[in-house]
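User: I'm writing a tutorial on reading structure tokens. Could you give me a worked example: one chain, its sequence, then its tokens, then a sentence or two explaining what the tokens reveal?
Assistant: Sure. Here is the example chain.
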Amino acid sequence: MRETDLYPALKAFLEARDYEVKAEIHSCDIVARKDDGPPLIIEMKRALSLQLIFQAVDRLALSETVFVAIARPKRALPREAAKLCRRLGLGLLVVSSSGSVEVLAEPGPYAPRKSKPRQQRLLKEFTKRHGDPNLGGSVGTKLMTAYKQDALRCLNHLQSHGPTKLSALREATRVDRAANILRDNHYGWFQRAGRGIYELTHAGHAATATFTTHISALTRGPQSLS
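And here are its predicted structure tokens:
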């Protein structure tokens, strides 16, 4: 589908909603107007691109009602595409090969709904994480989390003291979720040595060598674990 193939479908879509439609007005691909209202502007491209977004953002100086229009891709558009358009105050239209037009986003001021639970999880992880152990922008690498740091505190204590009662371990390490960490055993480091008593597995003993630098940083105080 060529870019010009989008125009007849978009023109028909707008005219069905009582707009007068004209193409290529002062560099705008499509300008439409209903009665004496403000202009509605559409910028077209075969696919969503930064160039299209830049053009549409520039058109916001001419109208508050600006859409970007693209041909329907073979694969579904990611949700972030409509979210980005809404964030910028733009609308998003998708035109199928049959000529149907779907509105994925309406133009207008962006007012995202805040997620209190997600914010609380973010701040909890920020507060509980010791130091700054990860490198920003890392991809495909295992990250150090507050949970793993707590597990390393438990690991270090069991390595130093041998089989330990859960209550004593929790008190010594000050890891409130020690019971969950030992029970879930996400990393395979821990095993029961008796009722309410835990010790390290072979994997746990090996991990003490693997994470020596991180464990040392945890015991030194609030410094980076890198």
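What the tokens reveal: Residues 127 and 146 are 9 Å apart (CA to CA). The chain has a mean pLDDT of 90.
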